[in-house]
Specification:
Adenine-n6-DNA-methyltransferase TaqI, Chain A, domain 2; four-stranded antiparallel sheet; 33% helix; globular; endonuclease activity; hydrolase
């Protein structure tokens, strides 16, 4: 059931009344979700073969919802349905799909997908839905986008989880019970549209930011290929359309290239094994979880912490207690390079790297060490740590570390020594290494800035979603009046 916030009547703002959902404007209604749903349809998985008389259609599953909401139908299966079935299940703008089965511990069933005009427009086939999904169509009292946003609020509060039934490991969503028991506040339609418009604007800003991040990451990949092949020279100065050798020079005095075992590189660069620039490798210490006499506290980094720590987030990094001699040997310094030895997954191989930066050390009120599933590498003077870590990243993204994984009892272990002894790195003079690192770090800073903007927009969306849906924040009357009239299905 919906949770009621205890609010004494005398504390109500002017023009508000107390309801089962808490204080809301007196002219808003509170109804069960089912009261605004005019129709519920079951899906059809169809056939995987185009038998005579069957028609092709995209058939949406719950697992497709998040990608389809971004306009990505690449992995949505095309199935074949009887004409009568497709006619009953063809989706239209304003339809609302709900996932009935699946889910997981961290992702309950009951996810929703709103069918938008953009989705319908971008499809060259009809769109239907599978037998593990249901389609809801709403009556005129509720704007579909407002309905889906309020459902999202309930979902994020864990309300759909209460209506899960688990059988043989499968989670099934009791849709009818949810519709009959959960309530929704109903402002006038103009205010529903206005609320949806504001929240959609924030979502669109977030999506635009995600596109900028994706483009910046692609730019970085392209720059890495260029910089590790030609060095820090303008793209227009690359040798074009000619075989390169140790003495080849481009038409405008470009640096000559040499052929090597890792491909063409500038003739004045060297190629060495990764291990030749590593002066020392240290094992980690997990320490103790209790502050016994004589033990010292420290952040102890695991491979699973690397991505967050690289963004400056140490919130979930465990504080452990180490012997003074152990901490003295394992205390991290600027320029140290950590490598993950164990863990990984099918989509995330071991061998991830973390470069210890001045910002990381400066922002810590405790020493930082590393666990026994991590090793620390320290480099000699021939290699700039930022350059080393960026080239390692290139190898990682190419899948090179995966080749050096050993799998035992389901755990993936990275064979670091073999990797260092067999993988090579192009080695420019230090000044060029630093310039390559500077160029790529500038792109990284752009990515971090956009990621911070994305996080801020996500926080703004969640805050607005809660405050607008509970009427703790009201939109200006003049703004709301702009949304009077209009197509209640248009989204």
């Amino acid at each position: 059931m919906n949770e009621m916030r205890p609010t004494p009547a005398e504390d109500l703002p002017p023009g508000y009344r107390l309801t089962e959902l808490g204080p809301i404007p007196a002219h808003w209604r509170v109804v069960r979700l089912g009261e605004v749903v005019s129709r519920v349809d079951t899906g059809d998985w169809g056939s995987d073969s185009s038998d005579s008389g069957l028609l092709p259609a995209y058939v949406l599953r719950g697992t497709d919802f998040s990608r389809v909401a971004r306009g990505d139908l690449v992995d949505v299966p095309i199935r074949y349905l009887r004409p009568t079935s497709l006619d009953r299940r063809k989706l239209f703008v304003g339809d609302v799909l709900v996932e009935l089965s699946g889910g997981s511990k961290d992702q309950p069933t009951g996810r929703l997908l709103l069918v938008t005009a953009a989705l319908i427009k971008n499809c060259n086939l009809p769109i239907a839905f599978s037998n593990f999904v249901k389609r809801m169509q709403l009556n005129k009292a509720c704007y579909p986008e407002y309905f889906s946003l309020y459902w999202q609020l309930l979902y994020e509060k864990g309300q759909t989880r209460i209506y899960e039934k688990r059988t043989t490991g499968i989670r099934n969503f009791k849709l009818t019970d949810f519709l009959n028991n959960q309530s929704i506040p109903l402002p006038p339609l103009a205010e529903q549209r206005a609320i949806a418009h504001v929240l959609r604007t924030v979502q669109e800003a977030k999506q635009a930011t995600e596109r900028v991040i994706a483009a910046a990451r692609e730019l970085k990949k392209s720059l890495m290929r260029h910089l590790f092949t030609y060095g820090p020279v303008p793209v227009g100065a690359m040798p074009v359309g000619e075989a390169v050798g140790a003495t080849s020079v481009g038409a405008h005095g470009r640096a000559p290239l040499q052929d090597t075992q890792i491909g063409p590189i500038p003739a004045h660069w060297r190629v060495v094994r990764l291990g030749e620039v590593v002066s020392r490798v240290d094992t980690g210490d997990w320490g103790s979880d209790s502050s016994d006499s004589g033990l010292l506290p420290a952040y102890v980094l695991r491979g699973t912490d690397f991505s967050r720590v690289a963004r400056g987030d140490l919130v979930d990094v465990p504080i452990r207690y180490l012997r003074p001699t152990s901490l003295d040997r394992r205390k991290l310094f600027v320029g140290d390079v950590l490598v993950e030895l164990s863990g990984g997954s099918k989509d995330q191989p071991t061998g991830r790297l973390l470069l210890v930066t001045a910002a990381l050390i400066k922002n810590c009120n405790l020493p930082i060490a590393f666990s026994n599933f991590v090793k620390r590498m320290q480099l000699n003077k021939a290699c700039y740590p930022e350059y080393f870590s960026l080239y390692w990243q290139l190898l990682y993204e190419k899948g090179q570390t995966r080749i050096y994984e050993k799998r035992t009892t389901g755990i993936r272990n990275f064979k670091l020594t073999d990797f260092l002894n067999n993988q090579s790195i192009p080695l420019p003079p230090l000044a060029e290494q630093q310039e390559i690192a500077r160029i790529l770090q500038a792109v990284d800073e752009k990515i971090r800035a956009e990621e911070a903007r994305k996080v801020a927009l996500e926080g703004l969306f969640r805050s607005l979603l809660h405050h607008l849906m509970t009427a703790q924040v009201r939109l200006p009357r003049a703004f709301v009046q702009q949304f009077a009239g209009g197509d209640d299905a248009a989204v």
